[in-house]
Amino acid sequence: MAFRTEVEEAGGRPVRLHCLAHAGAGVASYRRWPAAVGPAVDVVALPLPGRDSRRRESRVTDRAGLLADLLPTLLKAAGEGPYALYGHSLGALVAYTLTRALDDAGAPAPLFLALGACLPPHVATALVGAADLPDEELLPLLGDLGSLPQGVTASPGGLWRRSVLPVLRDDLRLARSLREAALDPTAGGPVRCPVLVFAGSDDPLAAPDSVQHWQQWASGPIVRHTVAGDHFFAGSAHVPRLVGRACRDLVGAGARDSGR
Questions:
Q1: CA dist., res. 160 & res. 21, Å (int)
Q2: Given this model, what pLDDT does residue 9 score?
Q3: Distance between CA atoms of 224 and 239, rounded to whole angstroms?
Q4: Which of 31, 130, 200, 247 has its CA 20 to 30 A from that of 239?
């Protein structure tokens, strides 16, 4: 059954929800989001260079390269109507970095920044600085997160080691660069939009209690959600439903405020 939302009734554009994936991955975890977010929200999954349709492009490993690649897309979107960002794990650091850069560029702020399965930049993790570890030291860390495939594909010389592990290493380099930049007062600091933080109930890296420290990176109160699952919960239907509801609620709140 079709039904109208406050966004549609106000004649507004759908919210453009930009989604960014975890390390070593393309955007497959967002495949089901368009059907799950609900009405008046357009899901735009943004693959980083070197994966999915961009797999032949050189991967980015630092903040400057990331902003050169993705910031023009977000600046354009920011001038076209309401938008929001959701990032998962590494994607959360990417989304935070883009939100800060948009603010520095004087662009309209997103409705909100949503961060999933990610510790804030000032909290150290075992994977910070792990990009150049030998395989025998890096793989156990990835295994603790559930990032290793089952069976022989993770064995030396296997397809996973040849095709996925190099992407993961470059993504860890990118994560380190983004964390370091966030701690620099000229590039980091709190974002000036609402912040939603999602944690998996069984996440061994970003436990529900630890993500509360994102409060230091927000100018206002953050809203926290704990969802069922481990580190890789973005593929569940519950998260996009909550994010889609936030899109509609904040657009509706803005429409009511402008009508007063």
A1: 18
A2: 38
A3: 12
A4: 130
Alpha helices (runs of H) in 30-164, residue ranges in sequence order: 33-36, 63-78, 90-104, 135-145, 159-163
Rg, the chain, Cα only: 18
- Taking the CA atoms of 31, 37, 41 and 47 in sequence, report the sign of the dihedral they define: negative
- SS3 assignment, position 101: helix
Residue 53 burial by Cβ neighbours in a 10 Å radius (0-12, 13-18, 19+): exposed
pTM of the model: 0.91
Mean pLDDT of 54-79: 97
Mean pLDDT (whole number) for 65-77: 98
Residue 3 has pLDDT above 50, yes or no: no
pLDDT at residue 72 is higher than 60: yes
Nearest-angstrom CA–CA distance, 48 and 28:
12
C-alpha distances (whole Å) from 179 to each of 111, 137, 224, 248 are: 23, 22, 21, 31
Q: How many CB atoms lie within 10 A of CB 88?
A: 28
CB 231 within 8 A of CB 89: yes
**pLDDT tens per residue across span 17-52:** 999 999 988 899 999 999 999 999 999 999 999 998
What span, in angstroms and rounded, lies between the C-alpha atoms of 16 and 14?
Answer: 6
Instruction: Return the bridge partners of 227, or none.
Output: 200
pLDDT in tens, 200-217: 999 999 999 999 999 999
The reported pLDDT for the residue numbered 149 is 76
Which phi and psi angles does 116 have, rounded to 5°?
-120, 135
Q: Confirm if 122 and 213 have CB atoms less than 8 A apart.
A: yes
